[in-house]
Specification:
- With 204 residues, this protein is mainly alpha-helical.
- It has 2 domains: 5-65, Arc Repressor Mutant, subunit A (Orthogonal Bundle); 67-201, Tetracycline Repressor, domain 2, CATH 1.10.357.
- It is 78% helix and 0% strand.
- It has 12 helices and no strands.
- Helix 1 (5-30) packs across helix 7 and helix 7 packs across helix 8 (116-123).
- The relative contact order is 0.09.
Length: 204
Protein backbone atom coordinates (compact mmCIF):
# COMPACT_ATOMS: atom_id res chain seq x y z
CA UNK A 1 0.00 0.00 0.00
CA UNK A 2 1.43 3.35 -1.07
CA UNK A 3 0.82 6.14 1.41
CA UNK A 4 0.26 9.65 0.14
CA UNK A 5 2.21 12.53 1.61
CA UNK A 6 -0.95 13.83 3.26
CA UNK A 7 -1.73 10.44 4.79
CA UNK A 8 1.81 10.15 6.17
CA UNK A 9 1.59 13.60 7.72
CA UNK A 10 -1.80 12.87 9.29
CA UNK A 11 -0.62 9.52 10.69
CA UNK A 12 2.57 11.05 12.04
CA UNK A 13 0.57 13.80 13.74
CA UNK A 14 -1.65 11.16 15.38
CA UNK A 15 1.41 9.23 16.55
CA UNK A 16 3.00 12.34 18.04
CA UNK A 17 -0.20 13.31 19.84
CA UNK A 18 -0.51 9.81 21.29
CA UNK A 19 3.17 9.72 22.22
CA UNK A 20 2.98 13.07 23.99
CA UNK A 21 0.09 11.81 26.12
CA UNK A 22 1.91 8.59 27.07
CA UNK A 23 5.26 10.31 27.67
CA UNK A 24 3.65 12.94 29.92
CA UNK A 25 2.01 10.20 31.96
CA UNK A 26 4.92 7.75 32.19
CA UNK A 27 8.07 9.55 31.06
CA UNK A 28 10.65 8.26 28.62
CA UNK A 29 11.73 5.33 30.80
CA UNK A 30 8.21 4.12 31.61
CA UNK A 31 6.64 4.53 28.17
CA UNK A 32 6.37 1.58 25.79
CA UNK A 33 6.02 1.74 22.02
CA UNK A 34 3.11 -0.70 22.17
CA UNK A 35 1.24 1.67 24.48
CA UNK A 36 1.83 4.53 22.09
CA UNK A 37 0.71 2.43 19.12
CA UNK A 38 -2.45 1.43 21.01
CA UNK A 39 -3.15 5.05 21.95
CA UNK A 40 -2.68 6.09 18.32
CA UNK A 41 -4.89 3.27 17.10
CA UNK A 42 -2.26 1.76 14.81
CA UNK A 43 -0.17 -1.39 14.79
CA UNK A 44 3.31 -1.65 16.27
CA UNK A 45 4.73 -2.33 12.79
CA UNK A 46 3.16 0.84 11.43
CA UNK A 47 4.66 2.81 14.31
CA UNK A 48 8.12 1.44 13.51
CA UNK A 49 7.69 2.65 9.95
CA UNK A 50 7.80 6.20 11.29
CA UNK A 51 10.04 5.81 14.34
CA UNK A 52 12.52 3.00 14.93
CA UNK A 53 12.66 3.44 18.70
CA UNK A 54 11.02 5.46 21.47
CA UNK A 55 14.06 7.73 21.90
CA UNK A 56 13.62 8.98 18.33
CA UNK A 57 9.92 9.50 18.94
CA UNK A 58 10.55 11.28 22.24
CA UNK A 59 12.98 13.68 20.56
CA UNK A 60 10.58 14.32 17.68
CA UNK A 61 7.63 14.99 19.99
CA UNK A 62 9.32 17.26 22.49
CA UNK A 63 11.64 19.15 20.18
CA UNK A 64 8.38 20.51 18.75
CA UNK A 65 6.33 20.68 21.93
CA UNK A 66 9.04 22.44 23.88
CA UNK A 67 8.16 25.51 21.88
CA UNK A 68 5.55 25.67 24.65
CA UNK A 69 8.35 25.99 27.19
CA UNK A 70 10.20 28.55 25.11
CA UNK A 71 7.11 30.75 25.11
CA UNK A 72 7.65 31.11 28.85
CA UNK A 73 11.14 32.53 28.36
CA UNK A 74 11.45 36.26 27.54
CA UNK A 75 14.11 36.04 24.83
CA UNK A 76 12.51 39.04 23.13
CA UNK A 77 13.45 41.37 25.96
CA UNK A 78 15.95 44.14 25.37
CA UNK A 79 19.39 43.40 26.80
CA UNK A 80 19.51 46.67 28.74
CA UNK A 81 16.13 46.11 30.41
CA UNK A 82 16.27 46.28 34.20
CA UNK A 83 16.39 42.91 35.96
CA UNK A 84 13.20 43.64 37.88
CA UNK A 85 11.33 44.14 34.62
CA UNK A 86 12.86 40.98 33.14
CA UNK A 87 11.68 38.94 36.13
CA UNK A 88 8.20 40.47 36.12
CA UNK A 89 7.73 39.83 32.40
CA UNK A 90 9.17 36.34 32.81
CA UNK A 91 6.68 35.64 35.61
CA UNK A 92 3.69 36.88 33.62
CA UNK A 93 4.65 34.89 30.52
CA UNK A 94 5.50 31.79 32.53
CA UNK A 95 2.26 31.72 34.47
CA UNK A 96 0.13 32.62 31.45
CA UNK A 97 1.47 29.62 29.52
CA UNK A 98 2.02 27.19 32.42
CA UNK A 99 -1.59 27.47 33.56
CA UNK A 100 -2.64 26.07 30.17
CA UNK A 101 -0.65 22.89 30.79
CA UNK A 102 0.46 22.63 34.44
CA UNK A 103 1.37 18.93 34.15
CA UNK A 104 4.28 19.73 31.83
CA UNK A 105 6.38 21.12 34.69
CA UNK A 106 6.24 17.90 36.70
CA UNK A 107 7.15 16.00 33.56
CA UNK A 108 10.17 18.29 33.10
CA UNK A 109 11.26 17.79 36.68
CA UNK A 110 11.04 14.00 36.43
CA UNK A 111 12.79 13.82 33.08
CA UNK A 112 15.56 16.17 34.18
CA UNK A 113 16.24 13.77 37.05
CA UNK A 114 16.34 10.78 34.70
CA UNK A 115 17.79 12.26 31.50
CA UNK A 116 19.42 15.63 32.31
CA UNK A 117 21.63 15.96 29.22
CA UNK A 118 18.85 14.95 26.85
CA UNK A 119 16.45 17.46 28.38
CA UNK A 120 18.96 20.30 28.32
CA UNK A 121 19.60 19.69 24.66
CA UNK A 122 15.89 19.60 23.86
CA UNK A 123 14.97 22.86 25.57
CA UNK A 124 18.34 24.59 25.20
CA UNK A 125 18.50 24.68 28.98
CA UNK A 126 21.95 26.19 29.24
CA UNK A 127 20.87 29.16 27.11
CA UNK A 128 17.91 29.81 29.40
CA UNK A 129 20.07 29.54 32.51
CA UNK A 130 22.78 31.83 31.16
CA UNK A 131 20.25 34.43 30.05
CA UNK A 132 18.82 34.79 33.55
CA UNK A 133 22.13 34.36 35.39
CA UNK A 134 23.77 37.12 33.36
CA UNK A 135 20.87 39.42 34.15
CA UNK A 136 21.36 38.73 37.88
CA UNK A 137 25.10 39.26 37.60
CA UNK A 138 24.66 42.61 35.86
CA UNK A 139 22.19 43.71 38.53
CA UNK A 140 24.67 42.78 41.28
CA UNK A 141 27.41 44.73 39.50
CA UNK A 142 25.13 47.76 39.34
CA UNK A 143 24.41 47.49 43.07
CA UNK A 144 20.71 46.68 42.58
CA UNK A 145 21.15 43.33 44.34
CA UNK A 146 23.58 41.88 46.83
CA UNK A 147 24.92 38.37 47.14
CA UNK A 148 25.35 35.51 44.71
CA UNK A 149 23.74 35.36 41.25
CA UNK A 150 23.31 31.57 41.44
CA UNK A 151 21.43 31.83 44.75
CA UNK A 152 19.12 34.51 43.36
CA UNK A 153 18.54 32.32 40.30
CA UNK A 154 17.55 29.32 42.43
CA UNK A 155 15.13 31.44 44.46
CA UNK A 156 13.43 32.85 41.38
CA UNK A 157 13.15 29.51 39.57
CA UNK A 158 11.70 28.01 42.75
CA UNK A 159 8.88 30.51 43.11
CA UNK A 160 7.88 30.24 39.44
CA UNK A 161 8.49 26.59 38.58
CA UNK A 162 7.75 24.77 41.85
CA UNK A 163 4.00 25.57 42.16
CA UNK A 164 3.42 23.78 38.86
CA UNK A 165 5.90 20.94 39.32
CA UNK A 166 4.35 20.28 42.76
CA UNK A 167 0.76 20.57 41.49
CA UNK A 168 -0.40 17.19 42.82
CA UNK A 169 1.24 17.70 46.20
CA UNK A 170 -0.24 21.20 46.55
CA UNK A 171 -3.71 19.94 45.66
CA UNK A 172 -3.48 17.22 48.28
CA UNK A 173 -2.06 19.48 50.99
CA UNK A 174 -4.62 22.24 50.38
CA UNK A 175 -7.37 19.72 49.63
CA UNK A 176 -8.39 21.73 46.59
CA UNK A 177 -10.02 20.78 43.30
CA UNK A 178 -8.50 21.22 39.86
CA UNK A 179 -10.47 24.44 39.36
CA UNK A 180 -9.41 25.76 42.76
CA UNK A 181 -5.77 25.03 41.94
CA UNK A 182 -5.99 26.93 38.65
CA UNK A 183 -7.55 29.90 40.45
CA UNK A 184 -4.71 29.83 43.00
CA UNK A 185 -2.19 29.94 40.16
CA UNK A 186 -3.96 32.88 38.51
CA UNK A 187 -3.80 34.85 41.76
CA UNK A 188 -0.26 33.65 42.45
CA UNK A 189 1.01 35.49 39.38
CA UNK A 190 0.15 38.80 41.07
CA UNK A 191 1.60 37.49 44.33
CA UNK A 192 4.95 36.74 42.67
CA UNK A 193 5.06 40.14 40.97
CA UNK A 194 4.57 41.70 44.42
CA UNK A 195 7.26 39.39 45.81
CA UNK A 196 9.70 40.61 43.15
CA UNK A 197 9.11 44.24 44.12
CA UNK A 198 9.64 43.40 47.81
CA UNK A 199 12.70 41.32 46.94
CA UNK A 200 14.43 44.29 45.38
CA UNK A 201 13.32 46.70 48.10
CA UNK A 202 14.83 44.39 50.73
CA UNK A 203 18.21 44.71 49.01
CA UNK A 204 18.34 48.50 49.44
Amino acid sequence: MILTTQTRKETEAIIKQAARKVFLQKGLAGARLQEIADEAGIGRTSLHYYYKNKEMLFNAVFSENFQEIKKRIPYQLEENLALKEILIQFTKEYFRNAIKNPDLDLFLLNEFCSHPELMLNLIKGHEITQFILQAFEKSIQKGELKGNAQQHFITFISVTFFPFAAKNMIQQMLQCSENDYIQYMHSREDYIVGFIHQYFNSQL
